[in-house]
Design brief:
Blueprint lengths: L1 E12 L2 E8 L12 E8 L2 E8 L9 E7 L5 H8 L6 E8 L12 E6 L4 H12 L7 E7 L8 H10 L3 E7 L7 E2 L6 H7 L5 E5 L2 H13 L8 E4 L3
Parallel strand pairs: 7-8, 7-11, 8-9, 9-10, 11-12
Antiparallel strand pairs: 1-2, 1-6, 2-5, 3-4, 3-6
């Protein structure tokens, strides 16, 4: 277990915050893009733990970011949104997880996310671009309700400009706009069907989307573990 401190809190949307966390034991918090941490908070005299995917890229410093969505009546998120202050101590376990990029990226990659499930994909995409990692095409489907709920919108658009192999498809379910409408699980099948070979698909987000997407991908002939990776802790 490691001690950390809240270094910054940034409002992304009405229901989402970025928490910048500084570790105290080492000069580098070493993790692989896509991994998660367990965050521990002492609330009412008891330490509670939650898992969160790291949203920042590995950059060999002692800070990292978590993107956290508010959950009504959630003891942990209510404390993070309403009580915690800059400089407050937290506990860290990890990093953990195998929800990471392959060492050699020899397939198209399709990231499918909703809500704060974009976290590990932001980490992976930043890592790819900043380190000039050789890839085939990389697609990101991101689903949310309205345009004001889109996370990292300008950042993702910037990545499409600096990294032409990256294709960004935000999808809104409750607001008409010039982009894609509906649910992400209604949009990725057409793309995957058009590819010359099976891509590597990563899923992270709301439980309903994960369940639907796994069924759709299985029906398309993709196999969990081989062609599909799933993470529940966005």
């Amino acid at each position: 277990m490691e001690i950390g401190y809240i270094k910054g809190i940034i409002k992304e949307t009405e229901s989402t915050r970025r928490f910048i966390i500084e570790t105290s034991k080492s000069e580098i918090f070493d993790f692989v893009a896509g991994q998660l941490v367990q965050l521990g908070l002492e609330i009412h005299g008891r330490v509670s733990w939650r898992n969160y995917s790291i949203s920042s890229m590995p950059d060999k410093i002692n800070t990292f970011e978590l993107l956290i969505t508010y959950k009504p009546d959630g003891l942990f998120s209510e404390y993070l949104f309403d009580t915690i202050q800059i400089g407050e101590m937290i506990f860290i376990e990890g990093p953990f997880g195998a929800f990471v990029l392959p060492r050699k990226i020899d397939k198209d990659i399709v990231f499918i996310s909703t809500g704060s499930g974009i976290s590990p994909f932001r980490s992976m995409l930043s890592y790819i671009v900043e380190n000039n990692i050789e890839t085939k095409d990389v697609y990101l489907f991101f689903g949310c309700r309205t345009k004001k709920d889109i996370l990292y919108f300008e950042e993702m658009l910037r990545l499409t400009r600096v990294y032409p192999k990256f294709k960004y498809i935000p999808v809104l379910s409750r607001e008409p706009w010039s982009g894609a409408n509906g649910y992400v699980q209604h949009h990725f099948p057409q793309l995957i069907s058009s590819l010359s070979e099976k891509p590597l698909v990563y899923l992270c987000g709301w439980s309903t989307m994960l369940a639907d997407a796994r069924i759709i991908l299985k029906d398309m002939g993709l196999e969990l573990g081989k062609d599909i990776k799933v993470e529940n802790f966005g």
